[in-house]
């Protein structure tokens, strides 16, 4: 298919699938994109494309700044805001010839697991089984649905505690969260700085890899971006090829709440990996049970600090019914935030403010930081490669005080992305506040540790198909050590090949 026909098909699908609400700002039919696609087509015919992404339509989550389209974060607070610059990741895509396909819907400021908390209405997942509307996952649900319904070639999202991987599992797409610090966050509206990671949605691993290679560069604008010497050092530690791949199976992920279709898909995935020569090893990540609670202390605490700038004076939409001199009582500030933020954002700001208060900081915030350190240590204990940011680990094989060599640890972990099927919209609306957070239980640990992880769809066979929410697949998550992004993607390709997918 020509690039122009592919782009026109994406635009036609955006119109046809408008009821799914995947886009807040779709690409305009009358825009200059056709000429750019034709130029890319000409370069491809001459054998001189800018990159594999030249002329492709890539959607951008609406918390990533774009110069030519509004950036709203799905919030009333920013509904009229347009950035004067592109985020670094957007600029790198445009430099590679890609075209922004629109801004995708999301949970407001990234705070949610089902893309329900949007000022512009919820995202709806296309379902083939039954007539009930199904959750798309969150917070990058719009990006995942846009890819699943071919409204774009690929999409960028952000992953703070699973916001790329969970929607991928629910929509039958591939969702990749790189190692923290690999992709620039400059121009990404912050939710929780120590956790936020730009992620990628695609229909296969090959597409994900092309975008990852395009974006994986040092950015001096982002203080968390790994420096070139660090990137070179990480790339120099080649994985051993003299032995079979060692796959770790976290026993703590084998919970009672795991649905039969997910459990069957997990077993089938491990059996397929074993048939390719890999060896399977049970491992223990004992702090996993406390990871979710720690996340929901740390992320809201950082959000409370980050979102304080939206006060109607520095940033945010001011309440027009109040005069400029609203008085020393703070009515301008209070009314702006009270009417500008949705209920879930208000809830998390309050949670974060509480955990940062003087009386609660020791019991909540500092305790959660200790749990986060233990989560990181758990992963370091099971991986064959040591943590590259702990001096001596890679050279000596000493991790956390225990002697360990490459033959003792595992190369990647394989586990479900979500414990069960995608819930219906009605089920999500009936959930309590705490119940709505539990869906992140398998994705949060990798986020706390800054690890690379990819969710790959695995087909559910037989009687379980009607239980997985519509697409006949569940997400399998491959998690690797910091810097092992390529290893994670290679194993993802093996899993992808099990069902004849990929390129």
TrEMBL record:
The catalytic activity of this protein is classed by the Enzyme Commission as 6.3.5.7
Q: Which subcellular locations apply to this protein?
A: Mitochondrion
One Pfam family linked to the record = Amidase
Where in this chain does the record put each Amidase domain? 34-489
Q: Keywords in alphabetical order, please.
A: ATP-binding, Ligase, Mitochondrion, Nucleotide-binding, Protein biosynthesis, Transferase
Drop me one GO molecular function for this one. transferase activity
The coiled-coil segments of this chain are: none
Record's keyword annotation contains Transmembrane helix: no
In the record, the note on similarity to other proteins reads: Belongs to the amidase family. GatA subfamily.
Name used for this protein in its record: Glutamyl-tRNA(Gln) amidotransferase subunit A, mitochondrial
């Amino acid at each position: 298919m020509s690039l122009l026909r592919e782009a026109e098909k994406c635009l036609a699908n955006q119109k046809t699938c408008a009821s799914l609400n995947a886009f807040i700002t779709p690409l305009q039919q009358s825009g200059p994109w056709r000429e750019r696609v034709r130029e890319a087509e000409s370069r491809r015919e001459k054998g001189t494309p800018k990159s594999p992404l030249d002329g492709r339509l890539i959607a951008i989550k609406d918390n990533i700044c774009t110069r030519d389209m509004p950036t709203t974060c799905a919030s009333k607070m920013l509904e009229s805001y347009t950035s004067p610059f592109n985020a670094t990741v957007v600029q790198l895509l445009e430099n590679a010839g890609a075209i922004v396909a629109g801004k995708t819907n999301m949970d407001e400021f990234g705070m949610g697991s089902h893309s329900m908390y949007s000022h512009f209405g919820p995202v709806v997942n296309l379902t083939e089984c039954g007539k009930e509307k199904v959750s798309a996952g969150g917070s990058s649900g719009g990006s995942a649905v846009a890819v699943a319904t071919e409204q774009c070639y690929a999409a960028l999202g952000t992953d703070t505690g699973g916001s790329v991987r969970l929607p991928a599992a629910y929509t039958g797409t591939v969702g990749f969260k790189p190692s923290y610090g690999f992709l620039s966050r400059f121009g990404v509206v912050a939710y929780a700085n120590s956790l936020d990671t730009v992620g990628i949605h695609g229909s296969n691993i090959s597409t994900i890899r092309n975008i990852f290679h395009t974006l994986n560069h040092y950015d001096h604008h982002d203080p968390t971006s790994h420096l070139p010497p660090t990137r070179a050092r990480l790339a120099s530690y080649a994985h051993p090829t003299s032995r079979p791949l060692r796959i770790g199976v976290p026993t703590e992920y084998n919970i009672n709440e795991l649905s039969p279709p997910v459990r069957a898909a997990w077993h089938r995935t491990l059996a397929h990996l074993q048939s390719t020569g890999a060896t399977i090893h049970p491992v223990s990540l004992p702090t996993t049970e406390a990871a979710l609670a720690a996340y929901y202390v740390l992320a809201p605490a950082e959000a409370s600090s980050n979102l304080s700038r939206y006060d109607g004076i520095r940033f945010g939409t001011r309440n027009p019914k109040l005069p400029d001199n609203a008085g020393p009582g703070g009515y301008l500030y209070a009314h702006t935030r009270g009417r500008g933020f949705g209920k879930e954002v208000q809830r998390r700001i309050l949670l974060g403010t509480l955990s940062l208060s003087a009386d609660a900081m020791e019991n909540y915030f500092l305790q959660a930081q200790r749990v986060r350190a233990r989560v990181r240590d758990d992963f370091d204990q099971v991986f064959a490669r040591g943590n590259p940011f702990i001096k001596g680990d890679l050279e000596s094989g000493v991790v956390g005080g225990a002697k360990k060599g490459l033959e003792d640890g595992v190369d990647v972990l394989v586990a479900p992305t979500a414990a069960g099927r995608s819930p219906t919209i009605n089920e999500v609306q009936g959930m309590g506040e705490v119940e709505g957070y539990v869906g992140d239980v398998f994705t949060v640990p990798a986020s706390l540790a800054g690890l690379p992880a990819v969710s790959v769809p695995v087909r559910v066979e037989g009687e379980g198909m009607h239980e997985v929410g519509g697409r006949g697949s569940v997400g399998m998550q491959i998690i690797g050590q910091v810097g092992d992004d390529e290893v994670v993607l290679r194993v993802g390709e093996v899993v992808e090949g099990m069902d004849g997918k990929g390129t």
